[in-house]
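Exercise 3.2. Students should predict the tertiary structure of the chain below and write it as structure tokens, then compare their answer with the key that follows.

Predict this chain's 3D structure.
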Amino acid sequence: MNTHFTYLILNFSAVFFPLVLSFDQKVAFYKLWKKLFIAIFINSLFFISWDIIFTHKNIWNFNPNYILGIYFFNLPIEEVLFFITVPYSCIFIYEVVKAYSKNQIFKFEKTVIIIFSIICLTTALLYHNKLYTLTNACICLFLIIFATYIYKLKTLNQFFVSYFISLIPFLVCNGILTALPVVVYNNFENMNLRLLSIPLEDLFYCLSLMLLPILIMDFLSRKSIQVISK
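Answer key:
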């Protein structure tokens, strides 16, 4: 078997079912594609830039046995696709949760926000000398505070539910990437604490990768409503 297609296959596997189910009438995810792709594009600019810098700094690198060998700057083309397929799938889950639960699903939203904020702040302080850990914790903390207290995202309840659901496919995909490994982490720049083969920081990473485009999509929706109302 040609292992060079491994990362590419993982990308397509991650997005296959969300893409097929995008035409479900209740969710009608395809109707959000314009806002979605704008959000994913802006989100990708941020995360790909971060990825390019961290790859250059040897925070992580990529196993040539599991990639095609086509590069964008210093990133495998599959890594670039990751920032399209994974946010697409995660936001699809978020929209499904929204469509099937108009009201709050649980009453502990503020508690979850406080716990996440404390964990991010504590992690950043304890591991301030670990670049991957510090960056993840700080970005995650900023996005949570911004979404909660500044932007005041009205669907935070549904977001956290969809985040915890998204962790299942995210951890499966990331588990394969780190177990083979396709992505090799420099443990001097992280906590060196693993959930199976996955760095614990990737839990923060998943939240940030999901929350930022959702904020952008919500902002675009608000702007559309304002234009229509005028």
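Discussion points: The mean pLDDT is 93. The longest strand covers residues 60-62.
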